[in-house]
Amino acid sequence: MAGYKSFLNAGHWPTLFASFLYFDFCFAIWVLNGAMGPFIGESFNLTAAQKGFMVSVPILAGALMRFPLGVLAQYIGRKNAAMVEMGLIVAALSFGYLFVDSYDEVLAMGVLLGIAGASFGVALSLGSGWYPPRYKGLAMGLAGAGNSGTVLAVLFAPPLASKFGWQAVYGMAAFTMLLPMAVMWFAAKEPPDREHQTFREHISCLFEKDGWAFSLIYVVTFGGFIGLASFLPTYFYDQFKVTKIEAGQLTMLATLMGSAVRVVGGYLSDRIGGVNTLTVVLLVVAASLVLCGLSGSSLAGTTLLFMLCFAALGAGNGALFQLVPLRWPLTTAVAGSMIGEVGALGGGLIPNAMGLSRQHAGTYLWGFVGFAVLALSMLLMLRVVQIRWTRTWAEKGGRARPAVQAAHPGDAGAGTPEDFGRARLTPSAE
């Protein structure tokens, strides 16, 4: 209990809650086409490859929109950027309700749904911005648990689509965005961890090898989460011939595990280190994916394996974003957006790979195997780069360095944000 109170007192919890709610609802909107995939696929008699592409469009669009939103947040503030984004989402959903009535229009709607996918970097940075490094992993884990919005989408969208039609779900979703907008407006405060920088400084992480190492690992952890979460309703419906609503419910079981364990991943990483946590995560992901591909005749076995896989993916997301603010303490929003952009682009590959595997090989197995090989490749890379990380800006295993904790704004004896930025070791110290 003392630790819980210490965590609450260390930052501004209403902002953290507003960030969670904002990300939760945005995530639900982002995967809306995936949740309604069986309905849309049946409406237009889509092939397996077309279904995969349709599901991937919002993921890819959201990935491309993340970095610009992160840069915008550096200039107008993360709270204001979040409000602008949510207003655009309401407009996009209104378009979907009024005008979408063909496969090409569904693809166009997928691009607009990508606006919601841009929220990631801003939500995590806004929510964790009030917290010192020793609590960054937990704060980011709590804000990032907003990926539970996947649960909302797959739980509510299929029955609503069945009763009112899938186009009507867009209109209903527009009204739900008013709640996180109100909470953000009244409860959130812009964090103090912000300094004015040039555009070149904003995008500096794009030119650093650490940024690309983080991004490639995130292709597995977050790309795997969003890609599989979007495709699972279609997978369960096609592979096991369950109803469309049951497909959503089975997907919910898996994605709920990933959302809940993300917080655990951040918490564990604060204590044993993000590198150690990611090592276990990547091993579990690779093994569970191969087993998922081999258990295609057992609905119960496949569901349990997906729950394990999503738990590992969720923990991996929390672990990776425990490391990000240690590496880029003053530009977490932009760095997080860049990493999230590449990671989500990887997520867009999964539905396409699964659809192509089914259409050309008659099985989803090779889609699973390909992603498992990618996870093992990222594990090998992690074990190599962590040697340099722990010599420069992190403790052994990926924990926060005590010197950085002492220099965080808001800690006892801390100085200004500029002091905090000078306190960390940068790659120039290699």
Please provide a brief summary of the model:
With 430 residues, the chain is mainly alpha-helical.
Q: What is the tally of helical segments?
A: 21
Q: How far apart lie the N and C ends?
A: 40 Å
Count of beta strands: 0
Strand % is: under 5%
**Rg, Cα atoms, Å:** 20 Å
Structural class: mainly alpha
User: What's the mean pLDDT score?
Assistant: 86
Task: From the structure above, extract its key features.
single chain, 430 residues, mainly alpha, 21 helices, 81% helix, globular, disordered C terminus
Description of the molecule:
This protein is an all-alpha fold and 430 residues long. It has one domain: Up-down Bundle (Growth Hormone, Chain: A), CATH 1.20.1250.20. The chain has helices at 2-10, 13-30, 32-35, 37-44, 48-76, 78-99, 103-117, 120-128, 133-144, 149-164, 166-176, 178-187, 199-202, 209-240, 244-272, 274-294, 299-327, 332-361, 365-392, 402-406, 417-423. Helix 6 runs antiparallel to helix 7 and helix 9 (133-144) runs antiparallel to helix 15. It is globular and about 55 Å long. Residues 404-430 have low confidence and may be disordered.
Break the fold down into its secondary structure elements and pairings.
Elements: H1 2-10, H2 13-30, H3 32-35, H4 37-44, H5 48-76, H6 78-99, H7 103-117, H8 120-128, H9 133-144, H10 149-164, H11 166-176, H12 178-187, H13 199-202, H14 209-240, H15 244-272, H16 274-294, H17 299-327, H18 332-361, H19 365-392, H20 402-406, H21 417-423
Helix pairs in contact: 2-7, 2-8, 2-9, 2-10, 2-12, 5-6, 5-7, 5-14, 5-18, 6-7, 6-8, 6-11, 6-12, 8-9, 8-18, 9-15, 9-17, 10-11, 10-15, 14-15, 14-17, 14-18, 14-19, 15-16, 15-17, 16-17, 16-19, 18-19
